[in-house]
Design brief:
five-stranded mixed β-sheet, six-stranded mixed β-sheet, D-Maltodextrin-Binding Protein, domain 2, 331 residues, alpha/beta, globular, 18% strand
Length: 331
């Protein structure tokens, strides 16, 4: 029995016997109500659902495209008794903090590496509920129309947030522009670049500022969310994008105490439905790639002391760069 049927059984039971005294219910209605209640209890036991009371569900998202996806499933959840409240963020760390402080119930703003880094760095235990889609990062430029046209010593901008900065360096490596000490490590920083044949110069900025600095740099690594917010088309405007074979999968995240709640189960069901995946695939000329199944085996990356020292030394070596933040989670 699906979760929707469980809720339907519960609604049937309440409509039959809670609007009037059970004593006034006919025998047939009472039997049906009993059967509905039994179905409800069995269904909850099978699914491990801890509560049947649906209410307001606060879910974090970036304005584009995640808030659009949540708006798409909002009517369906409303039919099931869940009032979805979409809370928009322009930051990758604050939604996780809000979840841990119980100001947010879930979020769809991040990938596995960012989630794993946050959990390790903050000693938290946020949970990935479901894989949603791949949102390839892209390389953008206002000064060249091809990576082949980059001149020696070109300036490349990327995010000062560690997990996103590491992703940017992996993309540069994928395009043959640099070589990293560990070619697959998602938290690499500039000190991990062991080969830089084009003598690229690196500048780091707050993630949401990257589109605005395009006129001042030769190349910028920009996430799909930030590109869309700036009016860029990730498919048509990027010079290169990440391959589809990536562990940077957007995930639905929640707190451990909400994993078995009915509302979170319904949210998970709605976000992973065939209808939602079709909608995701239709957005922005195919800029987003829906995924099927879950990839929860992605390894946790320890935030080692050696890496912390490299990060701090690397930052101070570059001096004060406009837009740079040095709080936890940043270079």
């Amino acid at each position: 029995m699906g979760i929707t049927k469980i809720r339907a059984s519960f609604n049937l039971f309440t409509s039959l016997c809670l609007d009037q005294s059970l004593l006034s219910c006919g025998l047939g209605s009472l039997r049906l109500a009993k059967l509905s209640l039994i179905a409800l209890v069995v269904g909850l036991a099978l699914f491990g659902v801890s509560s049947v009371q649906a209410g307001i569900l606060k879910v974090g998202a970036s304005p584009l495209p995640q808030a659009q996806i949540l708006e798409f499933i909002k009517p369906k959840l409303a039919e099931q008794g869940v009032q979805l409240e979409i809370v928009e963020f322009n930051d990758y760390i604050q939604p996780n903090i809000a979840m841990m402080e119980k100001n947010l119930d879930a979020s769809i703003h991040q990938t596995y590496p960012l989630l794993n880094f946050f959990n390790d760095d903050r000693e938290t235990n946020l949970v990935a509920m479901a894989d949603l889609y791949i949102s390839p990062m892209g390389l953008y430029s206002k000064s060249v129309s091809s990576l082949d046209d980059l001149s020696e010593g070109a300036t490349v901008a990327f995010s000062n947030q560690i997990a996103i900065g590491g992703r940017s360096l992996l993309l540069l490596q994928q395009q043959g522009l640099i070589e990293l000490r560990d070619p697959s490590y998602p938290l690499s920083n500039r000190s991990d670049v062991i080969s830089n044949p084009y003598h690229l110069k690196f500048s780091i900025y707050d993630t949401d500022l990257l589109p605005t600095v395009l006129p001042d740099v030769d190349l910028a690594a920009i996430s799909t969310s930030n590109a869309l917010a700036a009016g860029l088309n990730p498919v048509k405007d990027s010079l290169a994008r990440e391959s589809d074979d990536t562990n940077y999968i957007m995930v639905l995240t929640t707190r451990p105490d909400l994993v078995d709640s009915l509302d979170i189960q319904l949210l998970t069901q709605a976000l992973t439905s065939p209808e939602t995946k079709k909608f995701i695939g239709s957005l922005y000329d195919g800029a987003l790639i829906p995924v099927t199944g879950n990839s929860h085996e992605y390894p946790v990356i320890p935030h080692s002391l050696e890496y912390s020292e490299n990060r701090n030394e690397n930052y101070h070596g570059y001096g004060k760069i406009p837009g740079v933040t040095t709080q936890d989670g940043y270079y």
